[in-house]
Amino acid sequence: MKEYESANHYQRDSRITWRHIDTGVSPEIDVYCVLGLLNEAGELAGKIKKIFRDKNAFVGEDDREEIKLEMGDIVWYLTQIATGLGIDLSEILQANIGKITDRQRRGVIGGNGDKR
Questions:
Q1: What mean pLDDT do residues 16-40 have?
Q2: Closest Cα to residue 32, out of 87, 77, 79?
Q3: What is the 3-state secondary structure (H, E, C) of the chain?
Q4: pTM reported for the whole predicted model
């Protein structure tokens, strides 16, 4: 299995498995991948819900593997959306850690709103 040194290497390689699905919307906004992202996030939530319901919140190794695969699907769809918009994954990661560390520094991790 290939190991990735950077998110951008993954982004480049993952695009090989992408194909455009025409939704009649601007090709820069990949509606198919947005729907796929939401679907996969729902599948992840469902797996975690069943761990609480059926296993008293105990996460076994099989559960970890299934969760890892769902998270991989989420990353794939997110990556395709970013690529279509011309955004490098490294830009997304840097912007996010900058935002979160700034909130932590200012003591506003909790709360609501993107601009806190």
A1: 90
A2: 77
A3: CCCCCCHHHHHHHHHHHCCCCCCCCCCCCCHHHHHHHHHHHHHHHHHHHHHHHHHCCCCCHHHHHHHHHHHHHHHHHHHHHHHHCCCCHHHHHHHHHHHHHHHHHHCCCCCCCCCC
A4: 0.88
Q: Which residues of 44-69 are buried (b: 16+ CB within 10 A; e: fewer)?
A: beeebeebeeeeeeeeeeeeeebbee
User: At 28, is the pLDDT very low, low, confident or very high (cuts 50, 70, 90)?
Assistant: confident
Q: Is residue 41's pLDDT more than 90?
A: yes
103/115 Cα distance (integer angstroms)? 10
Report how far residue 114's alpha carbon sits from residue 104's, in angstroms, rounded to the nearest whole number.
Answer: 14
Q: What is the rounded average pLDDT of the residues 87-105?
A: 96
